[in-house]
Structures are given as C-alpha cells and as structure tokens.
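2 proteins. here.
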Amino acid sequence: MNRTRKGFTLIELLIVVVIIGILAAIAIPKFNDTKKKAYITAMKSDLKNLVSAGEAKFSEDNSYATWTMPTSGSSGVTITPGTQSATGWSATATHANAAGSSCEIGVGTGKPANLAEGEPGGATCK
C-alpha cells in the first residue's frame, strides 16, 4: 500500500506562522517611523508654502506687517505665528500625530537662529 500524502504537516504550518510573525514584528516599527516622517514632510511643505504667500504679500505692500498669517495647513498641520514685523516674520508648525516634533521657519529679521532664511528646520524637525 503505497500512498502519497498531499498537503502540509502541522509542524510545517507552525514554522511558517512563526516566520511570518517574526517578519511582522520587524516591519511594524518601520511603518510607524515612516508615518512620522510623512507628517514632518507635510509640516515642511506647509511652511515652504507659507514663505511663498508671505513673499507675495511683501511684493504688494513692501511690508510683512499687514499680512495675516494662516494658522492651519494641510492634513492636520497647525501653524503658530511667531514674530512678525515690517521686515520679517517667523512661524512654527506642529502636527497632532507627530508628537514631540515641530518645524520652524522665518524670513528677514524674524529668522530663527541657526536656520537658513526661508528653509524649515529645527531640533525636532527630522
């Protein structure tokens, strides 16, 4: 009686399940880090758009003092205006899902220290 069995044994199936579990345990933290990077990229993008809007207003009035800075950006980004004068301004962006991270930007006399003018940055903007 020569029977050939088709299918997998229980041990083979358990090994496959364990391997899939190990791969999932490695992949899940990497996905969380990717989401935080996406939120930070959204903050940087909104701040760069803010620079464009500010420069458009400056070209009209030759001053930043009359410009009303928006307080919200795309997809949950909150913009907090900083200093604002006729010759410069600054702002900070945060995101509710990127706790502990924020990005700063500034133009003219409002430029934060250690940042290039019109470029987002900051200690937690990574």
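next one coming up
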Amino acid sequence: MNKPKLSHPVFLCGMMGSGKSTIGEKLADKIGVAFADLDSVIEKSEGMSIPEIFEQKQEKGFRAIERNQLIKLAGEIEGILALGGGSLQNQQIVDHLKIYGWLIFIDTSRADIFERLSDPTGRPMLETADELTERINSLFDERMQYYEQAHFSVQTENKSVDEITTEIVKKLTIYEGRDYH
C-alpha cells in the first residue's frame, strides 16, 4: 500500500547548522515525498555558490533573491523544503509560508549551533571564529520571533536524526489527519 502524500508542503526553518537539510532529506524519504533545499535552488538559479552571491550582491541582494525564490516555491513545491537560516526575514514571509504549508521549527540550542559552526567554512555570515558567539547570539535574538511562529517545533538536543524525523512524522500525522508511518 502506498503512503499518503502530504496535503501541504513542509517548510523546515531554524538556525544555520540546525540540521534542516539532513532532517529534511530523511523526512522526505520516510514519508515518500520530494525534498528540496532552498540554498541549493538559489545556487542553481543564480549559477554561483551562496558565498559567491554574498560576495557579489551582499546580504541585501541575496535576501531579495531568497525571498523571490521562496515566494515562488511556496505555491509550487510538493514535499519538504529546507529553508535557509535567515529565510524568515519578516512577518509577511512567515504568514505566506503558513498559508501554503506546514512551517516546522528545528529547535537547536545555541551551544549545539556554536559547536557545529565552529568551522565556518562555507558559511557566508560567519567569517571568523572570534565573532562566532556574538553572531550566533545576535542571529538567535533577531530570528527567534519568526521561528517561534511555526505550526510546531521539534527540539533536537540529544536526539538522532531518526528520532527527530519520527517525532515530526507523528506530529504531521496529527496535523494532516493521515498516517505516514
């Protein structure tokens, strides 16, 4: 028997380094739906890496590209979309995503984020280790107001990817009224 498909797409939000892409891939596989990563979509559409986009177009230019792609994808995507850490730029984007699908916050502690980002290679907003703690705290403070508006959240501390995806599937089963096990 085939697993039921999602009635709405799932948007995974959370800080960079929270595991959105890893969790999203596993979740999509578990439910039997497609997976996409917003950063990968942007890189493909722009023909350059995220760090190159930041270098050439600065953060403001990147955020405009990100916002346009996200608004477009929200109405088209079927399955799971892992957002970038800063994708939820304002209330309008949060509201837009919540209209089109399930917004799920991958809630990872500051300590875990710090540990995962201690090697900032490829993270355009974290250039030096000296500013890492300050930058993480600042980003948490700026973004938490948007992350906390998700339909539901899943805490990641001391949990494996399998445990996290199982918890999301259980919650989606309730929200969707369908069994994804």
